[in-house]
Amino acid sequence: MIIWSASGIAVKSALSSFSPLTLIVVRFALSVLFMFIIGMVARRSTLFCLQKADRQDLPLFFLAGLFQPFLYYLAETYTYDLISTPTIAETLLSVAPVLAPLFGWLFLREQVTPRMLIGILVSTVGVAILVLVGTETFAIGNPWGILLAIVAVMFALSANVMLRRIPEKYNPLTIIFYTQIVSFVLFCGLWTFTDMRSETVHAIAQGIVTEWQSLAYLAVMSSAVAFMLYCYGVRIVGVVKANVFNNIRPVFTALIMLLGFSEQLPWTKWLGITIIISGLFLCHKNTD
C-alpha cells in the first residue's frame, strides 16, 4: 500500500506525455518484461521462478487478469485523469474495505467479525477526516471520476476473489506474471482500435525518455513488486483483512505530498491519520 500510495503522483506526471491507455500499455509492457527477466534469472528459486500453469487453472488466471489489472486499471487511470488531486483520487479508490466483507462472505465464505466491521468503520471515518475536514475548496473534479473510482474498486475485489481461488502451489511471481500477460494482451487489443491511430513511435519513445522515472516506478514497483506483495497478503490473511489496508493509502499519499510537494497537513489531517491507523489495529487485533 505504501508503494501504491505514490502511484497516483507518478500517473499524474506520466499523463503529461501519454494518453491514459497508451500509458497503461507502455507500463505493463515494461512490467511483464521485468518479471520475465526475474523469472529467467532466478529459475532455480522456488519463490521467484516462473512456473508452468496447469490447463484447469487457466480460467482463474484469465479472470484475475481481466478484473485486475485490465478493467481495474482502465477505471483507475481515467479516475486520476478526471479527479482534481492525487489525494482525493486515492481516497475514492480506497473504499474497498467497505465492500470487502460482502465480497469475502458471498464468494469465499470468509468470517467477518463485529470487531472487523468496527475497525473498518473507524478507519473509514479517519479517511473522511483526512480528506474532508479543514478543506475550504473541496473540488473533486469531473463527477464521472467518482463513478469510475467505485467501479474500479468492484473490479479489484473481484480479482481478489480469483487470487484466493488460484491454487497455492503457484508463487506470487507466477500468478502476477500470467495475470498481467492476460491484461497486456487485452490492453494492446483495445489500444489498437483507439489510441494507436493517433500515436507515433517517435512520440511514444520521447515520452518514455521524458517520463522514465515515473514509468520505472509504475512498471517495476507498482505493477510488479506491489502486486506480488499484495497477492501474497491476500492468500495469507484473506480478502477482507487485506483490503482494510487500502485505507492507509491516502495517509501515505498525503505524507508524500507534504514532504515532496509542500501540500499542507494541519492537525485535523494528523487526527485522521491516527484514526485510520487505530481502525487498522482494531480490525487485525488477535482475538484468540
Kindly summarize this structure in a few lines.
The chain is mainly alpha-helical.
Beta-strand residue percentage = under 5%
Poorly predicted runs are none
Proportion in helices = over 70%
End-to-end distance, in Å?
A: 27 Å
Describe the largest sheet.
Answer: none
Number of helices: 14
Structural class: mainly alpha
* Pattern of helices and strands: HHHHHHHHHHHHHH
As a whole number of angstroms, the C-alpha radius of gyration is 19 Å
Q: What is the number of E strands?
A: 0
Give an overview in words.
The chain has 288 residues and is mainly α. The protein is 75% helix and 0% strand. The protein has 14 helices and no strands. It has helices at 2-5, 7-14, 20-41, 58-82, 86-93, 96-108, 114-132, 143-165, 172-192, 201-210, 212-237, 239-244, 249-261, 267-284. Helix 2 packs antiparallel against helix 11 and helix 3 runs antiparallel to helix 9. The radius of gyration is 19 Å and the shape is globular. The protein starts with a helix and ends with a helix.
Could you give the topology of this structure?
Layout (H helix, E strand, L loop, with lengths): L1 H4 L1 H8 L5 H22 L16 H25 L3 H8 L2 H13 L5 H19 L10 H23 L6 H21 L8 H10 L1 H26 L1 H6 L4 H13 L5 H18 L4
List keywords for this structure.
mainly alpha, globular, 0% strand, 288 residues
